[in-house]
Amino acid sequence: MAEMIAFQRPDGKDCSGYYSEPSEGKTAPGVVLIQEWWGLNDQIKGMADDLVEQGFRVLVPDLYRGDVTLEQAEAQHKMEDLDFNDATDQDIRGAVQYLKKTHSSQVAVMGFCMGGILTMLSAIHLSEEIQAAISWYGVPPEEGGDPSTISIPVQGHFGTADSFFPPKAVDALEEKLKAGDVDYDFYRYEGAEHAFGNETGDSYDAAAKDKAWARSLAFLNEHIQQLNP
User: Fold this and answer.
1) What residue ranges define each of the domains in the chain, with the CATH number in brackets?
2) pTM greater than the 0.85 cutoff
3) How would you list the strands of the sheet with 132-136, edge to edge?
4) What digits encode the pLDDT tens for the residues 138-148?
């Protein structure tokens, strides 16, 4: 059953999130799923529900504290106003800790667009607490930390026609991962634009989304699913 819950951040403050679990319950492996810049909307809840159907417990922290938008300019404004350090170190870390305290011994972080950026930041800063990370079209900013220090498996999905994170940005990130001998797999989808996995958007590419989704599930099953009884 899906519901909005409250969980505690490391600093003691509360954060809310969309939570759901599979029929096998609270011993299933966990995924902290991170929203696009639109907020905690029905689309990201649907992605969470799809993961639950695959046997994962899922928690989507509400980074905008209840705000949701359909307007790109407003979404960009909200993303620019978000404190990425606080979102990573407190909201996302708190969500990871909640899943672990409630019996998911293995937890991955997975995100899209803005959530993809935060996923990479989580891989940099939360490697001691999470077991894997999947970024869909998200490249971390230079000031966010050093990707070469990542010590967990990372998977990335990027469109070759992405205007937000063009191939050169992805190549630069990949070079840093190579320099650190990070365990990673990057996939590039020919002709796909930014947010190609969002079925409600103008850039939706069903073929690319299906391939990326299948690869994401395989990655989760390899790195967290099999580690739970």
Assistant:
1) 3-227 (3.40.50.1820)
2) yes
3) 3-8, 14-20, 57-61, 30-34, 107-112, 132-136, 154-159, 184-189
4) 999 999 999 99
